[in-house]
Structures are given as C-alpha cells and as structure tokens.
Specification:
Layout: E1 8-12, H1 17-28, E2 32-37, H2 40-49, E3 55-58, H3 64-77, E4 80-85, H4 100-121, E5 125-133, H5 138-141, H6 147-159
Helix pairs in contact: 3-4, 4-6
Length: 160
Amino acid sequence: MGRFQGKRILITGGTSGMGLAGAQRIVTEGGHVAITGLNEERLERARSMLPATSLVMKSDAAGETDINALQEAISGWGSLDGLWLNAGFAEVSSPESVTADSFYRMMNANVRGPMLQLAALSKSLNSGASVLVTSSSSVYEGAAMTSLYAATKGAVIAMV
C-alpha cells in the first residue's frame, strides 16, 4: 500500500514543474489528486497525464471568484487529506523597476491567493489533514533582482 492510498490531495499550481510531479507521485502511491492551473495547454497536458478520476481545473490563485469556484468544486469532489498551496510566479527585475502594478500582481498571486485559498478550503480539510506551502530559497539569498518575489515567499513562510 502506498503512502497516499485513498487520500485526496489538492495541489494549486499543479499543471507543471514540481506541482505536476507531486500529483503524479501521489497517484502512483494510491492517492487521488485535484490540481489547478491557468495555462490551457498545461491543463490539457496534465489531464492526459493523470487518471480520469483526477480533478483538473482552471483557477487563478489571485482571483476571488476562482477561489470560491475552487472551494465549491472541492466540496463536490470530497474532503481533503492534503492541501498543497503551490501556485505562484516570479518576475525578475531590479527593485527600482518595480511598479505598483507588478507589486500587486505578484502579491495577489503569491500571498493573497494562498491565504484566501487556505481560508476557503479549511472547511474541506479532514481532521489531521496536512497543509503544505511552496516558498523559495530566494527569501534567504538577498538578490536584488528577486527582491519582490523573495518578499512574497517570505510572507508565505510567515503565513504558516
């Protein structure tokens, strides 16, 4: 029996990279996955790589409407044994080139989104469920070109 036998895990940002690799591993070990993403091509690719019982849905981590729709979809899918808040992105630029728009876009996707997702999805977590968030080593590196991204990932660490 696998470590995830019969477990239901939601992974935001699960259509590529470590999110998709994690979803595949969970399935290999007997679990069921729900994943989210924004890119249609990646969503279709993930659908083809995961069992038909998987829930693969388009969802913007920063969009309140999408967060509510995600919570509703998960309510219909079943309670969660695990939640991996993995969705996010980085814009690499110098501190002096950060604009209000880029600041809000990255803060909304990398901080506000996971916080509101956690709030909305907490009701769907089984007793003893695990919550995992993705941060970054950039929090500790002090690189000017990733300062805004590092700030968002530092906030995620503080969130948990």
